[in-house]
Automatic annotation (TrEMBL):
Lipopolysaccharide assembly protein A domain: residues covered: 23-94
Transmembrane segments: 46-68
Domain of life, per lineage: Bacteria
Keyword Secreted: no
Gene source species: Salipiger marinus
Swiss-Prot/TrEMBL keywords: Cell membrane, Coiled coil, Membrane, Transmembrane, Transmembrane helix
Protein name: Lipopolysaccharide assembly protein A domain-containing protein
Length: 116
């Protein structure tokens, strides 16, 4: 199974390198459209290879998706934490109740009750 995973990762690396080599041409990215840039007297431009734009878009999409899911699942994590805290509280209360119940019992009988 490990060999299959390494084989797939190697094929993915070869594919990504092939895409990068096939798309090395420069492209100019602008922060604002030309009309808005002249109106605001501010323009940022960056010239990068096309494959960086491609891979950057994939990376940005993955990051946005991960953050979106993390935020969406917040209520589930909060509910699980609340249930866990309630479970700990109830376990402590049960131990206290059992200790109070068994304080006047014989030690052997208390041990037998705990083993059930």
């Amino acid at each position: 199974m490990t060999y299959i995973r390494y084989l797939l990762l190697g094929l993915l690396a070869v594919l990504l390198i092939a895409i990068a080599l096939a798309n090395r041409g420069p492209v100019t990215l602008q922060l604002l459209p030309d009309d808005m840039a002249t109106l605001l007297a501010f323009q940022q431009m960056l010239t990068v290879p096309v494959f960086l734009v491609f891979f950057g878009g994939i990376l940005a999409g993955l990051l946005i998706g991960f953050v979106w899911e993390w935020l969406r699942e917040h209520k589930h994590r909060a509910a699980a934490a609340q249930r866990k805290a309630e479970l700990r509280r109830l376990e402590r209360q049960l131990k206290r109740t059992e200790a109070e119940r068994d304080k006047d019992k014989d030690e052997v009988l208390a041990i037998l009750d705990q083993s059930r």
